[in-house]
Design brief:
Helix content: 10-25%
Largest sheet: 7 strands, antiparallel
Shape: globular
Structural class: mainly beta
């Protein structure tokens, strides 16, 4: 039977780029919060509040649809690093003491990202004086003299009723927490975008920064080998190891995992040629099923390759098998991950949807449609039957 051949070596990793700092961090590590003055400044880190009011107040409002909420005038604020070294920051939204509207009825939209209920954000920050709850909306970093502007929209979700939101108020404020920090690989990649527009873009729907072109300078050393950075991917769900009590599923990952930014990298050279899966030849005209969770190579990579062990892989045709040597031999060109590399690999939820094989194939699907298909509920197991392409 025919089998799909893939180039192996795609991982999401969190890399750190260390920056030499010549003086103590404690000189200016701080937390600044939105206050009465329109500009709050301390040390060398500045937060400029564009709107006049310093409290975001949802009173005398009524439930509206998400489409209407997105049309609201945003609350705009700018963060600027006026220091001479790199700094990280967190944008927190605090619910003020005395607010009696539950967060499950308040929609939050930062910039043009997907709107979420306030209750869906994790309480990763400690509330400051006068607040009962604090949720981290986003984190980031700024190079010296760098700045970033955010637009925040709040509205009462359409699910609110007279019993749940009638006569109630949700008062909140933006709190920016900033400190000197090591610059992560994600932050470094983002900082290059402005000056490398010929080889880097962020024009996909999620504004992910990725490398483009035939010869981008995107090389990095990982696992003692040369790999290449595909890009920085936002809104990745980094998950802990499964246990009987905390098993990660597609239904509970938004509550069990943390939303974060990660780098996606690919090995510069292919490990070898392996079959994608081991389905019968009467399925999909012998080309196999485009479903990652059941693929044979998925098991080989996540088990033998990840742990640098010997494994069994399917060869090119007729369900033939061969031994995969991923041991950590110095002369082994297909060695698996060493202990250091394994600690840098993130366990994440991937988008693995596929095109609808009844109407399209990968050969006639453009990049935009493929991006949408990956985030769809389509999967090879349900779409792929005898007599269909998938």
């Amino acid at each position: 039977m025919n089998k799909k051949i893939i180039i192996l070596g795609l991982l999401a990793v969190s890399l750190t780029i260390s920056i030499a700092i010549g003086f103590s961090y404690a000189l200016w590590t701080q937390t600044e919060k939105q206050g009465t003055p329109n500009v709050v400044q301390s040390g060398c880190f500045e937060i400029s509040i564009i709107n006049q009011e310093n409290v975001i107040n949802l009173s005398n409002q009524y439930p509206i649809s998400d489409d209407k909420g997105k049309e609201q005038t945003p609350y705009t604020f700018t963060i600027k690093n006026t220091c001479s070294i790199y700094a990280s920051y967190a944008v927190n939204l605090e619910k003020l003491t005395g607010s009696d509207m539950e967060g499950q009825y308040v929609k939050v939209m930062l910039d043009n990202n997907e709107s979420k209920l306030y209750s869906e954000y994790k309480p990763e920050a400690t509330p400051t004086d006068g607040a009962s709850e604090a949720k981290t909306l986003t984190t980031g970093g700024l190079n010296p003299q760098g700045s970033i502007t955010y637009e925040l929209r709040l509205w009462i979700d359409y699910s609110g009723t007279n019993d749940t939101v009638g006569g109630r108020t949700f008062e909140s404020r933006i709190v920016i927490s900033a400190s000197a920090a090591e610059q992560t690989g994600v932050d470094y990649i983002e900082s290059l975008l402005a000056t490398h527009s010929d080889t880097m873009k962020n024009d996909d729907p999620n504004k992910n920064v990725r490398y483009i072109g035939s010869t981008p300078d995107n090389y990095v050393t990982f696992n003692g080998e040369i790999w290449r950075i595909i890009g920085e991917f936002d809104n990745m769900w980094e998950c802990p190891e499964d246990t009987e009590e905390t098993k990660i599923t597609t239904e509970n990952y938004t509550t069990k995992c943390n939303q974060t930014k990660l780098l996606k990298i690919i090995r510069d050279e292919a490990l070898s040629t392996f079959s994608w899966d081991s389905t019968d030849s009467n399925v999909n005209y012998g080309f196999g099923i485009n479903e990652w969770s059941t693929s044979a190579i998925q098991k080989a990579l996540n088990e033998a390759y990840y742990n640098s062990q010997l494994g069994t892989c399917y060869g090119n045709y007729r369900l033939s098998t061969k031994t995969c040597d991923f041991t950590e031999s110095t002369k082994n060109p297909t060695k698996g991950l060493d202990a250091t590399a394994r600690n840098q690999v993130a366990r994440v939820m991937w988008n693995t949807g596929t095109v609808d094989g009844t109407t399209k194939t990968h050969s006639n699907t453009n990049t935009k449609d493929m991006y949408t298909a990956e985030r769809s509920d389509n999967n090879g197991k349900s779409l792929c039957t005898s007599g269909t392409y998938c």
